[in-house]
Amino acid sequence: MAELTNVTVIGSGVLGSQIAFQAAYFGKTVTVYDISEEIVSKLPAKWERLSALYVRDMAATPEQLAAATSRLSGTTDLAAALADADIVIEAVPENLELKKKVWAQIGEVAPEKTIFCINSSTLLPSDIAEATGHPERFLALHFANEVWRNNTGEVMGHAGTDPAAVDAVLAFAEQIGMVAIHIQKEQAGYILNSLLVPFLTAASHLWVNDIAQAEEIDKTWRTATGSPLGPFQILDHVGMETYYQINMNAGTEESRRVAERVKREYIDQGHMGRSSGQGFYTYE
């Protein structure tokens, strides 16, 4: 397959905006699609915020950042966003029915050349592949939050994925500065979240059952292990919406209680995690 140059990102939330900026920084032409003009109008502010982080963490120059920003555009027109896409990366909330709906819409209008990638934290490609209408071109490319620093790109197909599509996405991940990780068969949670989610779940259950406050749980983990972040600091990076969806879909009583408390105490108050300046902790 030809090099994947024209990138469409579906959804401009925490990870969607990061994926778009990372791809543009490494020379790709990127179109970001979202559902309203109000959301799209906020993209320049996100590029400004990310630019500051790239200066801090990657010693990015003004010239590099200007070039990256020039390669980014936003739209509410799905057909226009996909018109010349070599690869589309979906980053909408972690809800199976929503993702199926979005992928059915993408599959109807995307060019025949387009490779389809889901950036899901927990869902399998085979859960959604048929909804696209093009299952042979569908696979997962999973990013960790703060993609420019925590730069794993987990590539996972399903039984019907064309191996050439897997190879193309592995190459693409490397081209945009990721460490490409090939997952050889489907695994819920991939590698990263197969390790991370049980850890965060254990911390969440301690919290929702009032065993200890989030700060004390974090302090225990950092002190005893030497880790730089505790579980609730990590969750602030993940974002409250993703945290809520994962717990709502977990199917246990404790996880449902976690989701309800997160919605009541954080999401309903506009405290979405580090991206909004307030989550379990307050950020500048």
Automatic annotation (TrEMBL):
GO terms for molecular function: (3S)-3-hydroxyacyl-CoA dehydrogenase (NAD+) activity; NAD+ binding. Keywords: Oxidoreductase. SUPFAM superfamilies: 6-phosphogluconate dehydrogenase C-terminal domain-like, NAD(P)-binding Rossmann-fold domains. Residues 6-185 form the 3-hydroxyacyl-CoA dehydrogenase NAD binding domain. Residues 189-283 form the 3-hydroxyacyl-CoA dehydrogenase C-terminal domain. GO terms for biological process: fatty acid metabolic process. Gene3D superfamilies: N-(1-d-carboxylethyl)-l-norvaline Dehydrogenase, domain 2, NAD(P)-binding Rossmann-like Domain. Pathway: Lipid metabolism; butanoate metabolism. Its EC number is 1.1.1.35. The record marks H142 as: Important for catalytic activity. InterPro entries: 3-OHacyl-CoA_DH, 3-OHacyl-CoA_DH_NAD-bd, 3HC_DH_C, 6-PGluconate_DH-like_C_sf, 6PGD_dom2, NAD(P)-bd_dom_sf. Belongs to the 3-hydroxyacyl-CoA dehydrogenase family. PANTHER family: 3-HYDROXYACYL-COA DEHYDROGENASE FAMILY PROTEIN (PTHR48075), 3-HYDROXYBUTYRYL-COA DEHYDROGENASE (PTHR48075:SF5). NCBIfam families: PRK08293.1 (NF006143). This is 3-hydroxyacyl-CoA dehydrogenase.
